[in-house]
Design a protein that fits this description.
Number of helices: 21
Number of domains: 2
Largest sheet: 4 strands, mixed
Helix content: 40-55%
CATH topology of the largest domain: D-Maltodextrin-Binding Protein, domain 2
Strand order of the largest sheet: 2-1-3-11
Strand content: 5-15%
Structural class: alpha/beta
CATH superfamily of the largest domain: Periplasmic binding protein-like II
CATH class of the largest domain: Alpha Beta
Radius of gyration: 26 Å
Distance between the termini: 48 Å
Shape: globular
Number of strands: 14
Length: about 550
C-alpha cells in the first residue's frame, strides 16, 4: 500500500512567531506615554496648522503634493500637509519611526491590524479619537456613525476607545438597484463551461456534479480542444482552476457537499452557522467526502495537474487558447478571450445526495487602520476637520478614482457622476482609465457606502456586470446568509492566539487537502490523525474559542466563563 505523507509540524513557524514577538517587544517597550493627550478628552489646542503625514500611495501615483483634490481640501480647512508617502517598504519605515519615537502627526493608508491599533492605542502612540467623533468636530463622519452604528462598533477596540477613522468600500447589489444588498465579495468564484463543446457532443449544461463528471470525461475522451478548435492533439484540459485561490479556485464545486471554503479575510474554513456558533468545515464529514470524491476526478485526468502550482496568468493563458472546458473566474470574457462566446455560467451543482449549499464569504468590512493620529500631533481638531471632508460622498469619490473634470467628466440626468471611458482616457491622456485612476487615487480613510453608487457616482461597468451576475446566477443558490463578520474586534490576548496559530493551522489544512485530492483518502486512521494534529499542533480549538468569543461580543451574546 502506498505510504501517505505524514503530518508535519511547521518548524519554521515557531521561529517566525518568536521573531515577530521579539520585534513587537522592541517596538512596544518604554512604557505608556500619552504625551499631552488624555483618553476621553478632546484637546483644546488649535495652534498647529501644519502637519506631517506618513503613509501609502499607489505604485502609479506621483505622490500627493500636487494632488488637486487634497490641495483644495487643505485650502478649505486652513491647514497644510507635508506628505511622506511610498508604495514600497512602508511597513519597515513605519516600524522604524515608531520604534525610534520619531512620529509624524498621523499615519495614513498603512492598514494597521486591530492588534497593532490596540497595542499602539494602549501605549499612547495613537491618540483616542472618540471625543472628536461628534457633530462639533466631524459633522460628516458623526452623521454616518449615527446612521450606521455597526461602523462605530467595528472601529471600537476592546478597551472601548477608538484610535482610527473608519475606512471601507461597501460595494453591494444595492448599487445596481437590487432589493437585497449583497457584497460583491459574497461569492468570489463564478464557474463556467464550454457550451459549444457540450452542443457538439449532444450534452446538456450539467446541473449536478455527476453530470459535470460525465461532461468532463467526454471533453477528455473526444479531445475537444483539438477536435473543435484545431489545437494540437492531446491539448484538452477538461477542467482547470487554481487551488484554494480567490476568484479562480475549485471551491465553488464543493457546494454539492454543503459548503464552499472560500479564501477569506478572517480565517480559512471558518463558517458561522445560523444559530450563531462557529465551526471549521475542514473537520466535517462533508469535507472528508468532498476531497475523496474529487480525488477520483483528479485520478481520471479531469482536473488540471498544474492546478496546485499555476498562477492566474497561466490559467488565463490556457483558457484564452481554447484548451480548457471548465474553469472559474468573475468574467467569462476576461478569462476565455476570443472563445468567450462559446461559454456559459454553470449553475451551482447538486452533489451525490442531490443537495447543495453555498456558504457566502466575508469581505468588504470596515477597518480603522488607515488613519491614525499620533501623540506628536498638537492640534488633532484641526487635522480632523481636514479628514472630515473625506466623508463627503463627492470628495471620497474623487479620492478613490480621480478629480472631477479629469476622471469624472459628466453627469447623467439624475446628477450622478460618470467616469471617463478607456477610449476617452486614451485619447485625452494617452493612458487607460485604470492607469489614470492609479495615478490619482489617494490611500486613506475612505468610506464608500452602497447608496453612493445610486446617488453620487456610477459604479464601474465591470463591477456592475459582476454584481448583476452575482445577484442573478449565484445568490439564489445560497440557503443561509450567515457569515462571520469581518468587523469583529479581538482582544489583545485573542490576537496573540491568532498570530501564533492561524498561519500554521491554515497551512496544515491546505497541504493535506491538496494531498488527499492528488493521492486519495483519507482512511479512518488518517482522518483521526489529521484532526488530532490540528488540535494539538495547530491550535484549532483555541482558534475556534477565539472566533466564537469575538463573535459573541459582536452579536451581544454573553460569553461563558
Amino acid at each position: 500500500m502506498k505510504k501517505r505523507k505524514e503530518f508535519k509540524t511547521l518548524k519554521w513557524f515557531t521561529g517566525f512567531a518568536l521573531a515577530a514577538f521579539l520585534t513587537l517587544s522592541v517596538t512596544a517597550c518604554g512604557g505608556k506615554d500619552y504625551g499631552n493627550h488624555e483618553k476621553g478628552v478632546a484637546s483644546t489646542d488649535r495652534s498647529q496648522t501644519k502637519f506631517s503625514i506618513m503613509g501609502a500611495q499607489s505604485a502609479l501615483s506621483p505622490g500627493y503634493t500636487d494632488n488637486v483634490v487634497l490641495n483644495q481640501l487643505q485650502q478649505d480647512t486652513g491647514i497644510s500637509v507635508d506628505w511622506t508617502t511610498m508604495s514600497e517598504s512602508l511597513a519597515e519605515q513605519v516600524n522604524i519611526r515608531i520604534a525610534g519615537d520619531e512620529l509624524p502627526d498621523a499615519f495614513m493608508g498603512v492598514g494597521f491590524s486591530n492588534y497593532d491599533i490596540s497595542r499602539y492605542g494602549d501605549d499612547g502612540t495613537f491618540i483616542d479619537l472618540t471625543p472628536y467623533l461628534t457633530e462639533e468636530y466631524m459633522p460628516n463622519l458623526s452623521k454616518i456613525l449615527e446612521e450606521n452604528p455597526d461602523i462605530r462598533s467595528a472601529i471600537t477596540m476592546d478597551d472601548g476607545y477608538i484610535y482610527g477613522l473608519p475606512a471601507g468600500e461597501r460595494m453591494g447589489t444595492a448599487g445596481i438597484g437590487a432589493d437585497e444588498d449583497y457584497s460583491i465579495y459574497s461569492i468570489p468564484q463564478f464557474s463556467m463551461i464550454n457550451k459549444a463543446w457540450l452542443d457538439d457532443l449532444g450534452l446538456e449544461v450539467p446541473t449536478t456534479l455527476d453530470e459535470l463528471h460525465t461532461a468532463l470525461k467526454a471533453f477528455k475522451d473526444n479531445d475537444m480542444s483539438a477536435k473543435y478548435y484545431g489545437n494540437a492533439p492531446g491539448s484538452t484540459i477538461p477542467m482547470s482552476t487554481g487551488f484554494d485561490e480567490w476568484c479562480w479556485g475549485q471551491n465553488i464545486f464543493y457546494a454539492g457537499f454543503g459548503f464552499t471554503n472560500w479564501p477569506n479575510d478572517v480565517c480559512k474554513d471558518l463558517v458561522l452557522k445560523d444559530d450563531g456558533t462557529v465551526e471549521f468545515v475542514c473537520v466535517s464529514d462533508a469535507y472528508r467526502d468532498a476531497v475523496t470524491y474529487f480525488h477520483d476526478w483528479y485520478a481520471e485526468g479531469l482536473m488540471d495537474v498544474e492546478m496546485f502550482s499555476q498562477s492566474d496568468t497561466q490559467l488565463i493563458s490556457k483558457c484564452s487558447q481554447g484548451y480548457v472546458g471548465v474553469s472559474t473566474w468573475w468574467y467569462i470574457e476576461e478569462l476565455m478571450g476570443d472563445y468567450a462566446d462559446d461559454y456559459v455560467f454553470l449553475p451551482v451543482l447538486d452533489g451525490p445526495e442531490g443537495t447543495h449549499n453555498v456558504t457566502i464569504r466575508t469581505g468588504g468590512g470596515i477597518n480603522s487602520g488607515n488613519l491614525n493620529i499620533t501623540k506628536a500631533c498638537k492640534s488633532p481638531a484641526n487635522l480632523l476637520k481636514f479628514y472630515d471632508m473625506w466623508y463627503d460622498p463627492e470628495i471620497v469619490m474623487q479620492l478613490q478614482y480621480g478629480a472631477k473634470g479629469v476622471y469624472f467628466t459628466q453627469q447623467d440626468e439624475n446628477g450622478v457622476w460618470l467616469s471617463i471611458s478607456d477610449e476617452e482616457s486614451q485619447k485625452k491622456y494617452g493612458k487607460g482609465s485604470g492607469e489614470l485612476k492609479g495615478e490619482q487615487e489617494v490611500y486613506g480613510p475612505k468610506l464608500i457606502l452602497s447608496d453612493y453608487y445610486q446617488t453620487t457616482f456610477k459604479m464601474e461597468d465591470r463591477a456592475i456586470e459582476r454584481l448583476t451576475d452575482l445577484y442573478d446566477y449565484w445568490m439564489p443558490y445560497v440557503d443561509s446568509k450567515s457569515v462571520y463578520p469581518v468587523d469583529c474586534v479581538f482582544t489583545s490576548r485573542e490576537l496573540d492566539d491568532i498570530d501564533w496559530y492561524k498561519v500554521s493551522f491554515e497551512s496544515a489544512v491546505a497541504e493535506q487537502e491538496g494531498l488527499w485530492i492528488k493521492e486519495g483518502g483519507p482512511t479512518d486512521e488518517e482522518w483521526e490523525s489529521y484532526i488530532e494534529h490540528l488540535r494539538k499542533k495547530c491550535g484549532m480549538d483555541k482558534l475556534l474559542a477565539v472566533y466564537q468569543a469575538a463573535y459573541n461580543r459582536y452579536a451581544g451574546i454573553e460569553n461563558e466563563e
